Amino acid sequence: MSNYNVLIVEDSPTMRQLIVFALKRIRGLTIVEAGDGVDGLKKLSATKFDMILTDINMPIMDGLKLVSLVRSDPNYAAVPIVIITTEGASEDKERAIALGANAYITKPIQTTQILDVTRRLLNLPA
Amino acid sequence: MSEQDDDKSASRRAEEFLQVFKRGADFTQDLLKENERLRFSLLQLEGQLKSGSNADNEETIRMRKRIEELEQQKEEILGRARRVEEENADFANRYVEIENENNMLANLYIASYQLHSTLDFREVLQVITEIIINLIGAEEFAIMLLDEKTNKLQAVMTEGLEISEVPAIAIGDGLVGQMAKTGENYFIDQMDNYERDFHHPLVVIPLKIKERVIGVIVIYKLLVQKPKFAEVDYELFTLLAGHAATAIFSSKLYSESERKLSTIQGFIDLLTK
Question: Does A14 sit within 8 Å of B114, measured CB to CB?
């Protein structure tokens, strides 16, 4: 089984725990957590990640800023990025996709949604 | 002479006649023989035909029987296939149910885990807020605690609105006060076109330790992508009603004991110096 590094950038410990809980059902994932965008960027520079899941509303650096910075890095130009947010308006989604996000999940989340999107973006069997 | 000639002529004609008659008799004999032979051949052919027809009938009957058996087998197999399809559909439905239950249990486990992960009062309120936003999907809500001196519910944490906006409510007053008094959960019947009303919210969840109400969670607005409550939300509300109350109460007691301990320690330090 291939090993994939997945980064979760989310300021809410409750959400982080829920996402980790969901992703643990997929074998071969190494999950790293970050509490905000700046912390996320530090971790991205230290390790090569295969997928990023990020919230939008976070202190210090929000998720959209993080997405644009990640996409400007040639090492992460093609890495799948999933937005998990409370922002359910279509213009928020369009903005995130325009910045380079691959998927957009709105809260409250279902663990099955996270699993489906992760499997799809990492080309893993269901 | 002429008599003699006549006799001869008559004798010749009789001879000819006999010859003709004899040939006729022979021909008749031949015909009879041929007839006999043909009749025999006919009988033989009829016999062959009869035995052949019987063999065909037996084969036909056997084949028909086989067809019936195969038809029966086909029906059984089709029936079995239908039952397997039905079972598959049942399994698929069951799988979805189990996934939903799994999702629900994950939410409940994490909510419970987070609620009891700290003894800091503000952190407990933050955890409750996170659960209501992220797991339930509320946009505007307040956590109100009972002030035992005034017997009024006061907002201590809000989301989507200012604390000062939320009016204090006496126990027993209006819908919120009544729910706090009775300890019953309230869910509005009609969510469409609802506009925020502090005295008539979408949801009121009393925070209870056994039968004692220490506060309420009041929800005024859900996230735009959350049109109605799901089954898991009612479970989460039930969990919040008990666990959030215990977590709040424990953290308050802990804060008070820490403060008292610090005061006592101060006195001791003062006396021993």
Answer: yes
